[in-house]
Amino acid sequence: MKNSKLLILITAMVFIFLIGPFIMIFLTSFSSDAIMRFPPKGFTMSWYAKALNIQMFRTTFWVSLQTGLLATATAMLLGVPVAYANIRFNYRGKGTLELLFSSPAIVPGMVIGFALLRFFVYVSNIPIVIGLYLGHTAILFPYTVRVVSASLRNFEGDIEQAAISLGSTPLHAFFAVVLPNIRSGLVAAFILAFITSFNNVPVSLFLTGPGVATLPIQMLSYMEYYYDPTISALSSIIIVLTVIVVQSAEKLLGISKYV
Amino acid sequence: MSLKPKTKALTMLLGAGCLFLLAFFLLPLLFVLYESFLGTDGNLTVSRYLAVLQDNQFQNVYLRTLKMAVIVTVIAVFTAYPTAYLMMKIKSSHKAILMSLVILPLMTSPVARTYAWIVILGRYGIVNQTLSLFGLTREPVRMLYTEGAIVVGLLQLFLPIMVLNLVSALENVPSEVEEAALSLGSSKIGTFFRVIVPLSFDGLIMGVTLVFTGCITAYVTPAILGGAKVLTLATLMRQQALVLMNWEAATVIAVVMILTTLILHTVLKRFRPRNQT
Amino acid sequence: MAFIELKDIDAGYEKGKPILKNFHLSVEQGELVSLLGPSGCGKTTTLRTIAGFIMAEKGSVTIGGKDYTNVPPNKRNIGLVFQNYALFPHLSVFDNVAYGLRRRKVSKPEIAKRVADVLHLVSLKGYEDRLPAQLSGGQRQRVALARSIVIEPELLLLDEPLSNLDAKLRDEMRAELSRLQHQLGITMIYVTHDQIEAMSLSSRIIVMNEGLIEQSGPPEDIYEYPATPFVARFVGFDNRIDGTLTRLESKSVHVDVQGVEFISTRPSPNLSKQDEGKSVSLYFRPDDTQIGVEPGKNAFEVTIDFSNYQGNTTQYAMHLGSHALRAVVPGKPIADGTDRTVFSIPPDKVIAEKGVR
Fold it and tell me: Could you tell me how far CA B27 lies from the centroid of its own chain?
């Protein structure tokens, strides 16, 4: 069947619109001009050097990395059992609980961060980093439940029952038979959740302050004061890293079916 | 007797997750809700709401946020549908490439993605340079810090979500259905609107819900492309809380934001066909 | 007391909605019993109750004299074979088969020996290192079988184990199952909806419907003397004619059907002298009918709705009053220009049962 020209035109425009900005960031990151001008003039790597040398970027990168890893790990520990229960069991009030478990994905991230700040930091006086960790865990939780559920759904319950009939306790069957077979789903969930945390701004917005910031928050505040290609260079680095992670995860795990 | 082991298992599986969400998610939210009704004398009152809702600036910002969300959603639907449709028609290897080009932006930092528009729409950006090259403008046009810039940024942010939802909805429409409609004398356009759209309606509503609520609560895009000049609900909330230290107002805006998203979710859910999975 | 004893069982997937109600079942040691019935009849529920995956809401499960009612499935030592094989996809054939032995803390050399023996038994020697994905359907089912018999279970439960295989493999595996059962003398309960499978394998068939046992007996009895209208239909007595019982004798029964006398030499044991004058139903198979004969006893004039030539046989759809009938007769369709014909049914091919209404 011939696809109409209009259809192709719209699709081409959509993809130029989606991908073009990335190319623009790459081009300006090498420009020797301190003002971002098009077409870029000259070629330099100095913006990359500058981006990597700014102390605040290095500190906040570690904060983002640690928050992301910890929050993802916690969300997985909470989410895998929930996903398992929802796939394998029917129980009263399941609908209500499923709503509860998905609600952090519906409530705006800014409000989650704001509420944690008001309640914990001001009322209970806990350190702001713990609030940051809790907020990130909360938004990743529904994510891990969803992705792990998807891979559990493809795993037949009979296989587990076979293990139990051969003498495994349900717990042993879960570790010996279920987990090894949903490994790629677990890894996919981990990667997707970590990227979500690493990129997140809304939740972090209220849970960062003097001394504690995540990388995206730090980039935002840098952009308020400076207008040079440093952010282009930093963004390019982040984009390239993301592409590498996402593409290899796609090759190995078929991550796109979980997005 | 037969239920006991199951109850025990469920408690173990769901207990930690429930406790976490109750303590670190629901409780703080309820606290904010309670706080939003708290008067200066410690009594419950709606005075905070009155102060915010009657404020002219808030009303303008709220309407502007809704307006931009509508514009972005409409454009997203009309561009994502043809894209998703074409992606279903092409070779699967080509489709896989396009899919990864859709997913890639979704996975990359919204800060980096939005920042790109500063480069593009800036004083010396590609748009202004092209306009002046053809002699269409004498002076650079100010495009940053306008509603238009925010709409463009939001569209780039949320278009992939719409495309993905439509692609997965269209994947569930068997191609035979379309061929059957064509063989029965329906035109291509007619088939699209009478057969394809109704069968992928669930995915459309899902996409609309996610894009619309996403636009209303988005912070990064209006912060970078609108700044303090063009405020939206999200940037207004931050400004009230962190710049003006007006926590009373920020609390009310937080509640308004939740209510708006919840209402949108509930209303749009009613449009979803029940018989489809 | 029988080897397996299910008493007063109420069981199902949802509490308060039991599929089995007041269910009784007993199976002797060494029997191969088939549970036969359409989907939803409760046969799989029965199997899962015996295996322990469904805990009965009421009643008791006894195996080998021990009360198993509250024993969890992992402590029951019952072999289970599934329709979709349910092999562990991440484990090799050897590790699949050794799984149950490892759970039982059997020593390593003993495991190696027993796995080798059982793989030999199912003709899968040399496949130890393959993964399930590298096996054919038939081979997978052999692994599943080996995995469940290597633990020397007291009882083997098979849930439609052959229905995912193609026809030729199914025949092969059926013969193999038969052989294994004779060789090992293990008690087996076999769930199926395929009557040919049940007939050819079992020493006893239990026909189930809506959570109840309709009939239990050796395959010949089920096939030749179905005890209920449901079983009759299920084993192919597709035709039914209603009439009035005129005379019941020890070996025959006389029935009046719209003025024609019908004799059946196979009266149901359910009929008694008191039923004379009451309504009865006659059941017979489409391929036991004759067509185009002289009117007389056991013969009727019927209207042919259509005939369908199938090579060595012809299928007729006919009706007698409000009864739709089917006949499968050798040869070509009769072509005498009318749609009326006489069909008859030999007295020893008709079973007479109490009326359905």
Answer: 26
Give pLDDT, residue C357: 54
Answer yes or no: do C184 and C262 share one domain. Answer: no
Q: Tokens 């007389």, residue?
A: C296
Residues of C within 8 A of A161 (CB-CB) are 51, 53, 73, 80, 82, 86
Phi-psi region of C155 (alpha: psi -120 to 50; beta: other; left: phi over 0): beta
- For B168-190, the pLDDT digits (tens) are 999 888 888 888 888 888 787 88
Residues of chain C contacting B5 with CB distance shorter than 8 Å: 55, 72
User: Which of residues C230, C251, C276 is at a domain's end?
Assistant: C230
Encoded tokens for A187: 């890894």
- Nearest chain B residue (CA) to C11: B2
Centroid of chain to Cα B205: 12
Same domain, C109 and C197: yes
Q: What φ, ψ does residue C315 adopt, rounded to 5°?
A: -105, 135
Contact call for A216 and B109, based on CB within 8 A = yes
| ipTM of this predicted structure | 0.92
Pair (C41, C186) in one structural domain: yes
List domains and CATH numbers for chain A.
1-44 (no CATH), 54-258 (1.10.3720.10)
Residues C48 and C150 both lie in one domain? yes
Q: Are residues C170 and C268 in the same domain?
A: no
| Token representation of residue C55 | 């805990």
- The total number of structural domains that make up chain C: 2
**β pairing state of C155-159 and C187-192:** parallel
Using a CB-CB distance cutoff of 8 angstroms, which residues of chain A are in contact with residue B124?
A: 35-38
* Residue B263 host element (H or E): helix B247-269
Which of A41, A47, A74, A110 should we substitute to test contact with B (largest number of B Cβ atoms within 10 Å)?
A110
Q: Which sign, positive or negative, has the C-alpha torsion B206, B208, B211, B217?
A: negative
Mark whether C262 and C348 lie in a shared domain. Answer: yes
| CA proximity to B220, closest of B62, B113, B125 | B113
CATH code of residue C84: 3.40.50.300
CA dihedral C12, C16, C21, C25 (to 10 degrees): 40
Query: Is C272 found in the same domain as C297?
Result: yes
Which of B2, B4, B7 would best serve as a mutation to test chain C binding (most C beta carbons within 10 A)? B2
Last residue of a domain, one of C212, C230, C248: C230
Cβ atoms of residues A221 and A213 within 8 Å = yes
Low-confidence ranges of chain B (pLDDT < 70): 1-4, 274-277
- A165 and C80 in contact by Cβ < 8 A? yes
Same domain, C17 and C149: yes
The full set of domain ranges for chain B reads 45-269
CB contact under 8 A, B10 and A202: no
Q: Does domain B45-269 have CATH number 1.10.3720.10?
A: yes
In tens digits, what is the pLDDT along chain A, a chain of 259 residues?
Answer: 455 788 899 999 999 999 999 999 998 899 888 777 777 788 889 999 999 999 999 999 999 999 999 999 999 999 999 999 999 988 888 999 999 999 999 999 999 999 999 998 777 888 899 999 999 999 999 999 999 999 999 898 899 999 999 999 999 999 999 999 999 999 999 999 999 999 999 999 999 987 789 999 999 999 888 878 899 999 999 999 999 998 898 888 887 778 7
